Amino acid sequence: MGGVMGRSNSLRRGGPESKLEAKMVEAMQRRASEGTSVKSFNSIIMKFPKIDESLRKCKSIFQQFDEDSNGAIDQEELRHCFQKLEISFNEEEICDLFSACDIDENMGMKFNEFIVLLCLVYLLKEPAGAQANSRMGLADIEATFETLVDAFVFLDKNKDGYVSKNEMVHAINETTAGERSSGRIAMRRFEEMDWDKNGMVTFKEFLFAFTRWVGIDDVEEEDEE
Ligand SMILES: [Ca+2]
Ligand SMILES: [Ca+2]
Ligand SMILES: [Ca+2]
């Protein structure tokens, strides 16, 4: 565990990464104003198996867009993917998203990177209209993305678009009051998420941590059932 963590230190402050981050924070704050249906940290944990199952189903979407089947979606394939899903991001936005999610910097989206990318798209994309219940035409996975956004909104108590260490401790302690170990668990969970160790977890960091917790970051070798 932890193999990929150190590499995010290469984040460029003030570069495209932080521009995208600003957009994510803004979108998250907008979403947070609608509230969250999550009542406790445990209820998030309880949803792990269902989220896991749903994200794994995403594998066929990934394979569909990995046109040359080399196990990664490159920028050209991603453009095709966005066209197909009618995601109208401009070239700069696509590049920013791509480099933000290409955490192993091999110029391709592996499965877990692709899932994080899609979830960020989900967050950034305004609903097409009140009547539209799907933003990307992927109703099943979008429900899961909504669950993840909802979980983040729950953790982000002060609604600034970041989860701080205190917020993480608070979220875990309010469900498992009195257990001394829960504080330590909260710390460990937090440190797993906070790659660049700046005391704040972005939604992107949260998502990557999530793909590790449910084990889809090492899904490559696995045979489909
Ligand atoms: Ca490919
Ligand atoms: Ca990559
Ligand atoms: Ca916060």
UniProtKB/TrEMBL annotation:
Ranges of residues in domain EF-hand: 53-88, 143-178, 181-216
Keyword annotations: Calcium
InterPro entries cross-referenced by the UniProt entry: CML21-like, EF-hand-dom_pair, EF_Hand_1_Ca_BS, EF_hand_dom
PROSITE patterns reported in the protein's UniProt record: EF_HAND_1, EF_HAND_2
Keyword Calcium in annotation: yes
GO molecular function: calcium ion binding
Name this protein carries in UniProt: Calcium-binding protein CML21
